[in-house]
Predict the structure.
Amino acid sequence: MISLEINGKSYKVDVAPDVPLLWVIREWLKLTGTKYGCGIGMCGSCTIHIDGKAQRSCQIAVADAQGKKITTIEGLPESHPIKKAWIQEQVPQCGYCQTGQIMQAAALLAEDPHPSEEKILQAMDGNLCRCGTYSKIKSAIRLASKGGSRS
């Protein structure tokens, strides 16, 4: 049995230790906000937080996540500034990559509440968006870093 702490809850799953954490999150625990994109850690759709750092869940064996604090999009509060900014800036188009984008941006803001344009670009560089909403993503991160709304 593998023991995990996800979004403040404890789970025990009976899976092989080398199963990717992504599949445990989505298939065994039914936390489907974390998306499968490429399976090789290149697109960012499966981004979650492990001990507060953005990580690609498709690249982490479930055994390696034991004893760590895991947060998925479901565990990021609705009141989080990045979620509010995402809505205000109307970022999503198809929406598929958005949970990974939000989790990556939330980790960036936790590390640096007021990142420079360069730091935003560096942090978000590995998260792909098929719809090309990159300018809206950057706008939402800048808005969240300023602590609020434009209204």
